[in-house]
Amino acid sequence: MVTPIFLATPGSDFSHRVETYQQRIDRKLERVLPSAAVFPEHLHEAMRYAVLAGGKRVRPLLTFACGEALGLSLDLLDAPATAVELIHAFSLVHDDLPAMDNDELRRGRPTVHIAFDEATAILAGDALQALAFEVLAHDPPLSAHPAMQTRMIGRLAAAAGSVGMTGGQAQDLQSEGQQLSCDQLRLMHERKTGLLIQAATMMACDAQPDLDAGTRRAIESFARQIGLAFQVCDDILDIESPTEMLGKPQGSDAAAAKATYPAVMGLPGAKAYLQELHEAALAALTDLSINTQPLSWMADYITQRNH
Questions:
Q1: Mean predicted lDDT score pLDDT of the chain
Q2: pLDDT tier at 54 (50, 70, 90 boundaries)?
Q3: pLDDT grade, residue 53 (50/70/90)?
Q4: Which domains occur in the chain, in start order?
Q5: Which of 106, 136, 102, 133 shows the shortest CA–CA distance to 46?
Q6: Cα 101–Cα 105–Cα 110 angle in degrees, nearest 5
Q7: Is the separation of the CB atoms in 295 and 225 below 8 Å?
Q8: Which of 116, 160, 255, 292 has a CA that sits 20 to 30 A from residue 67's CA?
Protein backbone atom coordinates (compact mmCIF):
# COMPACT_ATOMS: atom_id res chain seq x y z
CA MET A 1 0.00 0.00 0.00
CA VAL A 2 1.20 3.51 -0.86
CA THR A 3 1.02 5.95 2.05
CA PRO A 4 -0.66 9.21 0.94
CA ILE A 5 1.21 12.45 1.48
CA PHE A 6 -1.11 15.45 1.24
CA LEU A 7 0.49 18.19 -0.80
CA ALA A 8 -1.83 21.05 0.10
CA THR A 9 -4.49 22.06 2.56
CA PRO A 10 -7.79 20.51 1.41
CA GLY A 11 -9.85 23.14 -0.38
CA SER A 12 -6.87 25.37 -1.19
CA ASP A 13 -6.74 26.79 -4.68
CA PHE A 14 -4.93 24.61 -7.23
CA SER A 15 -4.22 27.69 -9.36
CA HIS A 16 -1.62 28.78 -6.80
CA ARG A 17 0.44 25.68 -7.61
CA VAL A 18 -0.01 25.43 -11.38
CA GLU A 19 3.16 27.36 -12.20
CA THR A 20 5.12 25.28 -9.70
CA TYR A 21 3.89 22.06 -11.32
CA GLN A 22 4.65 23.39 -14.82
CA GLN A 23 8.19 24.24 -13.73
CA ARG A 24 8.55 20.84 -12.08
CA ILE A 25 7.56 18.96 -15.24
CA ASP A 26 9.80 21.17 -17.39
CA ARG A 27 12.77 20.32 -15.16
CA LYS A 28 11.95 16.61 -15.37
CA LEU A 29 11.64 16.78 -19.17
CA GLU A 30 14.95 18.62 -19.37
CA ARG A 31 16.59 15.83 -17.37
CA VAL A 32 15.16 12.84 -19.23
CA LEU A 33 15.68 14.19 -22.76
CA PRO A 34 19.09 13.27 -24.21
CA SER A 35 21.58 16.11 -24.45
CA ALA A 36 22.00 17.70 -27.87
CA ALA A 37 25.74 17.24 -27.33
CA VAL A 38 25.34 13.43 -27.34
CA PHE A 39 25.34 11.36 -30.56
CA PRO A 40 23.15 11.47 -32.64
CA GLU A 41 23.24 15.17 -31.92
CA HIS A 42 20.87 16.29 -34.70
CA LEU A 43 18.15 13.89 -33.59
CA HIS A 44 18.51 14.80 -29.93
CA GLU A 45 18.38 18.50 -30.80
CA ALA A 46 15.12 17.91 -32.67
CA MET A 47 13.64 15.98 -29.72
CA ARG A 48 14.48 18.79 -27.34
CA TYR A 49 13.14 21.39 -29.78
CA ALA A 50 9.82 19.53 -29.94
CA VAL A 51 9.37 19.15 -26.18
CA LEU A 52 11.00 22.21 -24.60
CA ALA A 53 9.25 24.84 -26.72
CA GLY A 54 6.83 25.72 -23.95
CA GLY A 55 3.19 24.70 -23.95
CA LYS A 56 0.49 24.61 -21.30
CA ARG A 57 1.40 21.09 -20.03
CA VAL A 58 -2.32 20.35 -19.62
CA ARG A 59 -1.88 16.58 -19.47
CA PRO A 60 0.82 16.59 -16.77
CA LEU A 61 -1.25 19.14 -14.85
CA LEU A 62 -4.16 16.70 -14.89
CA THR A 63 -1.88 14.01 -13.46
CA PHE A 64 -0.78 16.34 -10.67
CA ALA A 65 -4.34 17.60 -10.08
CA CYS A 66 -5.71 14.09 -9.70
CA GLY A 67 -2.75 13.07 -7.57
CA GLU A 68 -3.30 16.09 -5.33
CA ALA A 69 -6.99 15.26 -5.06
CA LEU A 70 -6.03 11.77 -3.87
CA GLY A 71 -3.29 13.03 -1.57
CA LEU A 72 -0.43 11.30 -3.38
CA SER A 73 3.29 11.95 -3.19
CA LEU A 74 4.76 13.93 -6.08
CA ASP A 75 7.46 11.29 -6.42
CA LEU A 76 4.87 8.83 -7.75
CA LEU A 77 3.42 11.40 -10.17
CA ASP A 78 6.58 12.70 -11.83
CA ALA A 79 7.09 9.73 -14.17
CA PRO A 80 3.50 9.43 -15.49
CA ALA A 81 3.28 13.23 -15.89
CA THR A 82 6.53 13.22 -17.86
CA ALA A 83 5.61 10.19 -19.95
CA VAL A 84 2.22 11.54 -21.00
CA GLU A 85 3.78 14.84 -22.09
CA LEU A 86 6.37 12.97 -24.17
CA ILE A 87 3.58 11.01 -25.88
CA HIS A 88 1.72 14.26 -26.53
CA ALA A 89 4.86 15.83 -28.02
CA PHE A 90 5.41 12.79 -30.25
CA SER A 91 1.83 13.09 -31.52
CA LEU A 92 2.25 16.78 -32.36
CA VAL A 93 5.49 16.20 -34.28
CA HIS A 94 3.89 13.49 -36.39
CA ASP A 95 0.53 15.27 -36.81
CA ASP A 96 2.34 18.32 -38.23
CA LEU A 97 4.11 16.31 -40.96
CA PRO A 98 3.33 16.98 -44.64
CA ALA A 99 1.71 13.53 -44.94
CA MET A 100 -0.60 14.38 -42.04
CA ASP A 101 -1.83 17.91 -41.27
CA ASN A 102 1.06 19.66 -43.08
CA ASP A 103 1.35 22.43 -40.49
CA GLU A 104 4.31 24.82 -40.55
CA LEU A 105 3.76 26.57 -37.23
CA ARG A 106 3.45 25.14 -33.71
CA ARG A 107 3.56 27.13 -30.46
CA GLY A 108 4.48 30.22 -32.44
CA ARG A 109 7.57 28.81 -34.17
CA PRO A 110 8.38 26.50 -37.11
CA THR A 111 7.27 22.90 -36.70
CA VAL A 112 9.97 20.23 -36.30
CA HIS A 113 9.97 19.13 -39.94
CA ILE A 114 10.41 22.76 -41.02
CA ALA A 115 13.08 23.61 -38.46
CA PHE A 116 15.00 20.38 -39.18
CA ASP A 117 13.76 18.11 -41.97
CA GLU A 118 10.96 15.61 -42.51
CA ALA A 119 13.01 12.47 -41.86
CA THR A 120 14.41 13.91 -38.63
CA ALA A 121 10.91 14.86 -37.49
CA ILE A 122 9.66 11.29 -38.04
CA LEU A 123 12.59 9.86 -36.10
CA ALA A 124 12.26 12.44 -33.32
CA GLY A 125 8.61 11.47 -32.85
CA ASP A 126 9.52 7.79 -32.79
CA ALA A 127 12.22 8.41 -30.19
CA LEU A 128 9.94 10.52 -27.98
CA GLN A 129 7.35 7.74 -27.92
CA ALA A 130 10.00 5.20 -26.89
CA LEU A 131 11.40 7.57 -24.26
CA ALA A 132 7.97 7.88 -22.61
CA PHE A 133 7.89 4.17 -21.83
CA GLU A 134 11.55 4.17 -20.81
CA VAL A 135 10.71 6.83 -18.21
CA LEU A 136 7.89 4.72 -16.78
CA ALA A 137 9.96 1.54 -16.86
CA HIS A 138 13.01 2.94 -15.06
CA ASP A 139 11.67 5.58 -12.67
CA PRO A 140 13.04 4.67 -9.20
CA PRO A 141 9.91 5.53 -7.13
CA LEU A 142 7.69 3.52 -9.50
CA SER A 143 10.10 0.60 -9.63
CA ALA A 144 9.35 -0.01 -5.96
CA HIS A 145 5.72 -0.72 -7.00
CA PRO A 146 5.88 -3.02 -10.07
CA ALA A 147 2.13 -3.70 -10.26
CA MET A 148 1.44 0.06 -10.28
CA GLN A 149 4.16 0.53 -12.89
CA THR A 150 2.67 -2.16 -15.15
CA ARG A 151 -0.81 -0.61 -14.95
CA MET A 152 0.53 2.79 -15.97
CA ILE A 153 2.55 1.40 -18.87
CA GLY A 154 -0.43 -0.59 -20.14
CA ARG A 155 -2.80 2.35 -19.81
CA LEU A 156 -0.53 4.78 -21.65
CA ALA A 157 0.24 2.26 -24.41
CA ALA A 158 -3.46 1.63 -25.02
CA ALA A 159 -4.22 5.37 -25.05
CA ALA A 160 -1.50 6.01 -27.64
CA GLY A 161 -2.07 2.98 -29.89
CA SER A 162 -4.22 1.98 -32.82
CA VAL A 163 -7.46 1.94 -30.82
CA GLY A 164 -6.46 5.19 -29.11
CA MET A 165 -4.75 8.37 -30.22
CA THR A 166 -3.01 6.94 -33.30
CA GLY A 167 -6.20 5.30 -34.51
CA GLY A 168 -8.09 8.54 -33.95
CA GLN A 169 -5.58 10.41 -36.10
CA ALA A 170 -6.02 7.81 -38.86
CA GLN A 171 -9.78 8.29 -38.62
CA ASP A 172 -9.34 12.07 -38.74
CA LEU A 173 -7.29 11.85 -41.94
CA GLN A 174 -9.83 9.54 -43.55
CA SER A 175 -12.71 11.86 -42.65
CA GLU A 176 -11.30 14.97 -44.35
CA GLY A 177 -13.89 16.35 -46.74
CA GLN A 178 -16.59 14.04 -45.38
CA GLN A 179 -19.71 14.89 -43.42
CA LEU A 180 -19.66 13.01 -40.11
CA SER A 181 -22.52 12.58 -37.70
CA CYS A 182 -22.17 13.87 -34.14
CA ASP A 183 -21.73 10.30 -32.89
CA GLN A 184 -18.99 9.57 -35.45
CA LEU A 185 -17.19 12.78 -34.52
CA ARG A 186 -17.42 11.98 -30.81
CA LEU A 187 -16.03 8.47 -31.30
CA MET A 188 -13.14 9.83 -33.38
CA HIS A 189 -12.17 12.44 -30.80
CA GLU A 190 -12.61 10.10 -27.86
CA ARG A 191 -9.71 8.23 -29.46
CA LYS A 192 -7.64 11.05 -30.94
CA THR A 193 -7.74 13.44 -27.99
CA GLY A 194 -9.80 12.02 -25.16
CA LEU A 195 -8.00 8.79 -24.31
CA LEU A 196 -4.64 10.45 -23.70
CA ILE A 197 -6.29 13.01 -21.42
CA GLN A 198 -8.05 10.16 -19.63
CA ALA A 199 -4.74 8.33 -19.26
CA ALA A 200 -3.08 11.45 -17.83
CA THR A 201 -5.77 11.60 -15.15
CA MET A 202 -6.20 7.90 -14.46
CA MET A 203 -2.48 7.13 -14.09
CA ALA A 204 -2.74 9.06 -10.82
CA CYS A 205 -5.52 6.67 -9.80
CA ASP A 206 -3.19 3.79 -10.73
CA ALA A 207 -0.80 5.18 -8.12
CA GLN A 208 -3.46 4.65 -5.43
CA PRO A 209 -4.11 0.87 -5.58
CA ASP A 210 -6.59 0.84 -2.69
CA LEU A 211 -8.78 3.56 -4.23
CA ASP A 212 -12.45 2.61 -3.89
CA ALA A 213 -14.30 1.65 -7.06
CA GLY A 214 -16.86 4.45 -6.81
CA THR A 215 -14.24 7.17 -6.65
CA ARG A 216 -12.32 5.58 -9.52
CA ARG A 217 -15.46 5.46 -11.70
CA ALA A 218 -16.30 9.07 -10.90
CA ILE A 219 -12.83 10.31 -11.81
CA GLU A 220 -12.90 8.24 -15.01
CA SER A 221 -16.24 9.83 -15.94
CA PHE A 222 -14.77 13.27 -15.23
CA ALA A 223 -11.75 12.51 -17.42
CA ARG A 224 -13.91 11.22 -20.28
CA GLN A 225 -16.03 14.38 -20.33
CA ILE A 226 -13.09 16.75 -20.03
CA GLY A 227 -11.18 14.88 -22.74
CA LEU A 228 -13.95 15.57 -25.23
CA ALA A 229 -14.37 19.12 -23.95
CA PHE A 230 -10.71 19.81 -24.68
CA GLN A 231 -11.25 18.93 -28.37
CA VAL A 232 -14.49 20.90 -28.67
CA CYS A 233 -12.75 23.95 -27.21
CA ASP A 234 -9.83 23.48 -29.64
CA ASP A 235 -12.24 23.40 -32.58
CA ILE A 236 -13.92 26.60 -31.41
CA LEU A 237 -10.59 28.36 -30.86
CA ASP A 238 -9.50 27.46 -34.39
CA ILE A 239 -12.29 29.76 -35.55
CA GLU A 240 -12.24 32.48 -32.92
CA SER A 241 -8.63 32.94 -31.73
CA PRO A 242 -6.00 34.75 -33.82
CA THR A 243 -2.87 32.99 -35.04
CA GLU A 244 -0.59 34.89 -32.66
CA MET A 245 -2.61 33.65 -29.69
CA LEU A 246 -3.06 30.07 -30.95
CA GLY A 247 0.59 29.66 -31.92
CA LYS A 248 -0.57 27.99 -35.15
CA PRO A 249 -2.49 29.24 -38.20
CA GLN A 250 -6.06 30.25 -37.45
CA GLY A 251 -8.63 28.40 -39.56
CA SER A 252 -6.32 25.50 -40.43
CA ASP A 253 -9.07 22.95 -39.70
CA ALA A 254 -11.48 24.59 -42.11
CA ALA A 255 -8.76 24.96 -44.74
CA ALA A 256 -8.10 21.21 -44.55
CA ALA A 257 -11.84 20.44 -44.66
CA LYS A 258 -11.57 18.64 -41.33
CA ALA A 259 -14.58 17.31 -39.47
CA THR A 260 -14.90 19.58 -36.43
CA TYR A 261 -17.63 20.29 -33.92
CA PRO A 262 -18.45 23.75 -35.34
CA ALA A 263 -18.59 22.22 -38.83
CA VAL A 264 -20.98 19.46 -37.73
CA MET A 265 -23.01 21.27 -35.04
CA GLY A 266 -22.55 24.92 -35.97
CA LEU A 267 -20.59 27.31 -33.76
CA PRO A 268 -23.49 27.97 -31.31
CA GLY A 269 -24.14 24.23 -31.07
CA ALA A 270 -20.46 23.51 -30.40
CA LYS A 271 -20.39 26.13 -27.64
CA ALA A 272 -23.51 24.65 -26.06
CA TYR A 273 -21.97 21.16 -26.22
CA LEU A 274 -18.78 22.45 -24.58
CA GLN A 275 -20.85 23.84 -21.71
CA GLU A 276 -22.72 20.54 -21.43
CA LEU A 277 -19.46 18.57 -21.20
CA HIS A 278 -18.07 21.01 -18.63
CA GLU A 279 -21.14 20.62 -16.44
CA ALA A 280 -21.07 16.82 -16.79
CA ALA A 281 -17.40 16.73 -15.77
CA LEU A 282 -18.09 18.76 -12.64
CA ALA A 283 -21.19 16.69 -11.84
CA ALA A 284 -19.08 13.53 -11.88
CA LEU A 285 -17.11 14.90 -8.92
CA THR A 286 -20.15 15.68 -6.79
CA ASP A 287 -20.29 13.95 -3.39
CA LEU A 288 -16.78 12.49 -3.60
CA SER A 289 -14.99 12.40 -0.26
CA ILE A 290 -11.72 13.74 -1.70
CA ASN A 291 -10.43 17.24 -2.41
CA THR A 292 -11.97 17.74 -5.87
CA GLN A 293 -10.93 21.40 -6.20
CA PRO A 294 -7.80 20.66 -8.31
CA LEU A 295 -9.87 18.68 -10.82
CA SER A 296 -12.64 21.29 -10.87
CA TRP A 297 -10.05 23.99 -11.54
CA MET A 298 -8.65 21.96 -14.44
CA ALA A 299 -12.15 21.55 -15.89
CA ASP A 300 -12.64 25.31 -15.80
CA TYR A 301 -9.22 25.95 -17.30
CA ILE A 302 -9.64 23.48 -20.16
CA THR A 303 -13.06 24.76 -21.17
CA GLN A 304 -12.44 28.50 -20.70
CA ARG A 305 -8.95 28.89 -22.18
CA ASN A 306 -8.30 31.20 -25.14
CA HIS A 307 -5.46 29.25 -26.79
A1: 91
A2: confident
A3: confident
A4: 15-304 (1.10.600.10)
A5: 106
A6: 120
A7: no
A8: 160
